[in-house]
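Milestone M4 deliverable, item 7.
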Amino acid sequence: MLICMTGDHMLTVLGALANVHRLRIIASLQLEGRNYVSQLARDVGLSRPLLHLHLQKLQEAGLVRSQLELSIDRKALNYFEVTEFLHEFSR
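Output delivered:
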Protein backbone atom coordinates (compact mmCIF):
# COMPACT_ATOMS: atom_id res chain seq x y z
CA MET A 1 0.00 0.00 0.00
CA LEU A 2 1.36 3.43 -0.93
CA ILE A 3 0.52 6.20 1.49
CA CYS A 4 1.08 9.87 0.70
CA MET A 5 2.13 11.38 4.01
CA THR A 6 1.65 14.87 5.30
CA GLY A 7 4.37 16.42 7.43
CA ASP A 8 2.37 15.81 10.61
CA HIS A 9 1.80 12.16 9.78
CA MET A 10 5.48 11.73 8.93
CA LEU A 11 6.38 13.05 12.38
CA THR A 12 3.93 10.58 13.94
CA VAL A 13 5.49 7.67 12.04
CA LEU A 14 9.07 8.72 12.77
CA GLY A 15 8.19 9.28 16.43
CA ALA A 16 6.68 5.80 16.62
CA LEU A 17 9.82 4.30 15.11
CA ALA A 18 12.16 6.28 17.38
CA ASN A 19 11.90 3.83 20.26
CA VAL A 20 13.82 0.59 20.68
CA HIS A 21 10.84 -1.21 22.27
CA ARG A 22 8.55 -0.33 19.37
CA LEU A 23 11.17 -1.47 16.86
CA ARG A 24 11.41 -4.79 18.74
CA ILE A 25 7.61 -5.11 18.66
CA ILE A 26 7.53 -4.51 14.90
CA ALA A 27 10.41 -6.95 14.37
CA SER A 28 8.67 -9.64 16.43
CA LEU A 29 5.38 -9.21 14.57
CA GLN A 30 7.15 -9.17 11.22
CA LEU A 31 9.14 -12.34 11.95
CA GLU A 32 6.54 -14.34 13.90
CA GLY A 33 3.36 -13.01 12.30
CA ARG A 34 0.30 -11.73 14.11
CA ASN A 35 0.18 -12.33 17.81
CA TYR A 36 -2.06 -11.64 20.79
CA VAL A 37 -1.07 -9.16 23.48
CA SER A 38 -0.16 -11.56 26.31
CA GLN A 39 2.10 -13.69 24.11
CA LEU A 40 3.65 -10.66 22.42
CA ALA A 41 4.42 -9.15 25.85
CA ARG A 42 6.26 -12.35 26.81
CA ASP A 43 8.09 -12.47 23.46
CA VAL A 44 9.44 -8.92 23.70
CA GLY A 45 9.90 -8.89 27.48
CA LEU A 46 7.49 -6.07 28.35
CA SER A 47 4.60 -5.85 30.77
CA ARG A 48 1.16 -5.84 29.15
CA PRO A 49 0.40 -2.24 30.22
CA LEU A 50 3.69 -1.00 28.75
CA LEU A 51 3.15 -3.06 25.60
CA HIS A 52 -0.33 -1.52 25.20
CA LEU A 53 1.19 1.96 25.37
CA HIS A 54 3.69 1.12 22.62
CA LEU A 55 1.09 -0.66 20.47
CA GLN A 56 -1.16 2.39 20.71
CA LYS A 57 1.63 4.61 19.36
CA LEU A 58 2.31 2.15 16.53
CA GLN A 59 -1.39 1.92 15.71
CA GLU A 60 -1.79 5.71 15.66
CA ALA A 61 1.07 5.84 13.15
CA GLY A 62 -0.61 3.17 10.99
CA LEU A 63 2.24 0.69 11.45
CA VAL A 64 0.20 -2.05 13.16
CA ARG A 65 -3.46 -2.99 13.26
CA SER A 66 -5.47 -5.05 15.71
CA GLN A 67 -8.37 -7.46 15.61
CA LEU A 68 -10.30 -8.73 18.59
CA GLU A 69 -11.15 -12.45 18.43
CA LEU A 70 -12.66 -15.05 20.76
CA SER A 71 -10.61 -18.10 21.63
CA ILE A 72 -12.08 -21.60 21.84
CA ASP A 73 -12.67 -21.10 25.57
CA ARG A 74 -14.46 -17.78 24.81
CA LYS A 75 -11.66 -15.50 26.02
CA ALA A 76 -11.20 -12.25 24.10
CA LEU A 77 -7.78 -12.08 22.46
CA ASN A 78 -6.57 -8.88 20.85
CA TYR A 79 -4.32 -9.84 17.93
CA PHE A 80 -1.87 -7.38 16.41
CA GLU A 81 -0.08 -7.50 13.08
CA VAL A 82 2.21 -5.25 11.08
CA THR A 83 0.54 -3.35 8.28
CA GLU A 84 2.05 -3.37 4.81
CA PHE A 85 3.22 0.14 4.27
CA LEU A 86 5.36 2.16 1.90
CA HIS A 87 5.49 5.86 2.50
CA GLU A 88 5.99 8.54 -0.11
CA PHE A 89 6.90 12.04 0.95
CA SER A 90 4.32 14.65 0.04
CA ARG A 91 5.11 18.20 -0.92
